[in-house]
Amino acid sequence: MTVVLEVRDLRTEFNTRAGVIRAVDGVSFTLKRGEILGLVGESGSGKSVTGFSLLGLVDPPGRITGGSIQLNGTDLVGLPESELRARRGKEIAMIFQDPIATLNPLLTIRKQMMMALEAHQNMTTKAAETRCIEVLQRVGIPDPAARIKAYPHEFSGGMRQRVAIAIALLHDPAVIVADEPTTALDVSIQAQILHEMRSLAAETGTAMIWISHDLATVSSLAKRLLVMYAGKVVEEGATGTVLRDPRHPYTRGLITSLPAIAKPGEDLLQIPGTTPSFLSLPPGCPFAPRCDSAEASCEKMPEITWDDERMWRCHHPLGRRGTDVRGAQQ
């Protein structure tokens, strides 16, 4: 399958008065046509900054300081803003968490979608409106020919998010970056949108990066997972494989904290402590202070290990020590 996005050693930093924050520190991955990739981790792990970096949306004092982002063979890092703007929406698009912040409350849905089309394509008004109605229907908006004339406040939260997804799909981009787009929605609407996104990826060939702290949601959507911690990818692999047999203790912690793992009446397991400040990361493995497997060797940053399309960054990978997902010794 064709690789549409290849990210290599991506580094994004924020220069603050307190020091340099390395929010994205050497992130690498590839994305194939029609693939859905899950990017998971706790809040503050660098997931969203990674997504913003891919579209060149990191504002000062943040900046990309290294690496490459190859989109269909073109490196986006270092491109002039005018060239990046020409590619945003058309070749790579983003769905934000809050559709209220995405949609202009003073403009009708039709006007906003037409503006997005006019920015990248030379179409007649009739053809553009037909295209807008087509994508609204694709994401499940009922009676799109009539609803396109409405304002954002006339839609429910779930419908507004569908409109935001429709705008991202207008140009059939090669890649869509979805930054926790269903977090604020109820479970039933969330399930509908996840089903539609799977279908859209299969039908259109658009690849997606689904960013979330909700491992349960991502696991039902993505075929491959990247687990981030303190700006680094600490584990990568096929979703089913990672969930059944995590290598990194942090991945195990995320899995065991899911309510579905615990038996009725049983206390939920949790990862001790909190994510560290990027300004005061511990030496070596950043997860070591929270890890029950940490040893003296963890004071040195672990190397990346690849094994049969699986990757982890840990001195003491769990699978090799006979530890199951609940942390009990087998």
From TrEMBL:
One Gene Ontology term of the molecular function aspect: ATP hydrolysis activity
Annotated keywords: ATP-binding, Cell membrane, Membrane, Nucleotide-binding, Transport
Pfam family, one: oligo_HPY
Ranges of residues in domain ABC transporter: 5-255
Membrane topology: Peripheral membrane protein
Coiled-coil blocks: none
Subcellular location field: Cell inner membrane
Database matches in Gene3D superfamilies: P-loop containing nucleotide triphosphate hydrolases
InterPro entries assigned: AAA+_ATPase, ABC_Ni/Peptide_Import, ABC_transporter-like_ATP-bd, ABC_transporter-like_CS, Oligopep_ABC_C, P-loop_NTPase
Protein family: Belongs to the ABC transporter superfamily.
Protein name listed in UniProt: ABC transporter ATP-binding protein
Organism: Denitrobaculum tricleocarpae
Classification lineage: Bacteria, Pseudomonadati, Pseudomonadota, Alphaproteobacteria, Rhodospirillales
